[in-house]
Amino acid sequence: GIIALIGIMVNDGLVLIGKFNGNLRSGMTFDDAIFEAGRSRFRAIFLTSLTTAAGLAPLIFEQSRQAQFLIPMAISIAYGIGFATVLTLIMLPIFLSFSNKVKVGTKWLATGNTITKEEVERAIKEQKEEIHLQDQMVTKLLKEPTNGSSVSDPKKDLEKELEDTK
Q1: pLDDT of 143
Q2: Phi, psi (5° rounding) for residue 103?
Q3: Is the domain of 140 the same as that of 68?
Q4: Residue 68 near residue 79 (C-beta atoms within 8 A)
Q5: 72: in domain
Q6: What is the mean pLDDT of residues 83-110?
Q7: CA 153 remoteness from chain centre
Q8: Would 125 be classed as within a structural domain?
Q9: Cα–Cα distance between 46 and 26 in angstroms, integer?
Q10: Torsion angle of the four alpha carbons 129, 131, 135, 136, in this order, in degrees rounded to the nearest 10
């Protein structure tokens, strides 16, 4: 039962953190991103927990002899899911905020520079790396000479590739 409960907790946490990272990538501030992630994913997380507990209710109240060995598992999942929901919706955002403050403080101690909450988050770092790589590729494509010219024309190159494939 505990293994199933851990799976549900991990899933709920991933849903919340995925939305949080998406909010950061879309340009929200750190605090707004946490709040909006919790608000927008509350229904999905709460309904997952509610339907799981409701689905286990008949098994919990079953009186037959065959169901007696499954009742402890059902109870542990049903009550654990309520606790896990509170952890996911309340404690996970608090933990994210706390860990962000630790990252900002560590960065400040290491560099002496004051940085924003958003700059230390992995989602923003990855987004900056992607933009940097795209800029490098565009620069490289524009610098490569084709047909004796010093600067490549991407439109002409694309037209040439299309003609070659025909």
Answers
A1: 78
A2: -60, -45
A3: no
A4: no
A5: yes
A6: 92
A7: 38
A8: no
A9: 25
A10: 20
Question: What's the CA gap between 115 and 93, in Å, rounded?
Answer: 21
- Asked if 42 and 86 count as a contact pair (C-beta separation under 8 A), the reply is no
Evaluate if pTM is beyond 0.85: no
Radius of gyration of the chain (CA): 26
Q: Is 30 within 8 Å of 121 (Cβ atoms)?
A: yes
pLDDT tens for 130-166 read: 888 888 888 878 776 655 555 566 667 767 766 776 5
Is residue 155 located within the same domain as residue 82? no
Distances (CA, A) of 62 to 35, 81, 91: 40, 20, 34
Q: Could you tell me the CATH number of the domain that includes residue 45?
A: 1.20.1640.10
Domain assignment of residue 22, given as a range? 2-112
**3-class DSSP state of 150:** coil
CB 16 within 8 A of CB 92: yes
If you count them, how many residues does the chain have?
Answer: 166
Top-confidence residue, 139 or 24: 24
The answer for 148, left when phi > 0, alpha when psi is -120 to 50, beta otherwise, is left
Q: What is the pLDDT of residue 39?
A: 94
Give alpha helix (H) positions in 26-121: 30-60, 71-86, 92-111
**Who contacts 10 (Cβ-Cβ below 8 Å, separation ≥6)?**
none
